[in-house]
TrEMBL record:
Cellular component aspect of the GO annotation: plasma membrane
UniProt membrane topology term: Multi-pass membrane protein
Family annotation (SUPFAM superfamilies): MFS general substrate transporter
Xref: Pfam families: MFS_4
Keyword Transmembrane helix recorded: yes
Chief location: membrane
Protein name (record): MFS transporter
Keywords annotated in UniProt: Membrane, Transmembrane, Transmembrane helix
Subcellular location field: Membrane
Ranges that cross the membrane: 15-34, 54-72, 84-103, 115-134, 141-160, 172-195, 216-235, 255-273, 280-298, 304-326, 338-361, 367-386
Record's keyword annotation contains Phosphoprotein: no
A GO molecular function held by the record: transmembrane transporter activity
Coiled coil regions, renumbered to chain: none
Amino acid sequence: MDNFSSPTVSKQAKIYICAGIAALIVVHAIGRFAFTPLLPYFIQDGMFSIEQGANLATLNYAGYLIGALTAVKFSHVHQLKPLLLTSLILNCLCTLLQCWISNFDALLMLRLLNGITNGIVFVLAPSLILEWLVTHQKTHLSGLVYLGVSIGLILDSMLIDWTANLFTGAMRWLPVAFLSVPLTLYSVFYLNQIVIRPHQLSGTSSSQKLFDHNTTPLFIAYAGAGLGYILPMTFLPTLAHDVASQHTFWVKNVWLVTAMACLIFLPFWNWLGARFTDRFALLGSYLMQIIGVAGVLIFPNILGVLICAVFMGASFMGTVVSSQRIAKFFQPQQGAKLYALLISLYAGTQLLGPWLAKLYIQNGGTLLHSFSFGLLALIWGFIWTFRVPKHHSTSFD
């Protein structure tokens, strides 16, 4: 966080980064990941089964993929901001509507729309801010935007688990939904002020292929990251209720542990990539995720759940930030299209996670053992990262 508080950083840069953080809290931490700590309560309340919960998650991830692909098409400077701001507002409205809707078919549609708008904002908001930072020689701050995910996960945990006795059913969305309103207004107001001239936007005139000998291994590895992280980040609190129900304190706070690990380690990945190259940081983030998922498979109890929470929470955003910065290093002119492709790939493989878990459970497997699919996917990503060419700098300033 030192870079962010440095006196050399302008007030404008701080405001724009905070606006990006607020946007990611709304669409990704609340709009998407609040469903994870809510899921065991919804099942407990009889709203739907774990298989139906997997269907809701899958459709949300499908929407996320659609949104990311949409962002590819509308990534030009004159299209980017209107779509970004509209999607952010719609995402907030989806979260609010979920407070009063318990019909499963209606929830499916809301989760789909939530995913679409999340995908659009998750691509375009960091991309817009990064382009502004590049033109003002402050690219090294770009990773701080993703603090919105970790901060939002902490807020999710506190607002959902600590108010669990006050609400039932769909009303459990209320605490996080109300928080999303002022954050949306703040983010829309300041993101709308960012001005980038068309010729400044990366990728608007580049003819370089997105897939080349430098980036192809990175993309193949990233496919493993999408499948590998999504099972614990969707079902870990539910698994905690299944295997460690007697440890009430830790079960109720497992998502908080995950979120705190994410918040603490995100600046570390930012620093590690700048100090030793992002390829080094990326290998480390894959290895930590492998340890996390293996931990809960080896120790199917509260110890394993906490190992998974700490190691997954600490490392999954490191994979995202490091992969995007490596791609930006190899193809600095690709801009929003580059991020959209990476996120689309991530989102596409995420779709397999809940679907595989549902299929496995329906055929006699357990939720715990379905995490094996994620472990294999992360090992795949780790191995392919060794094929990514070494580079010497992460600075684009």
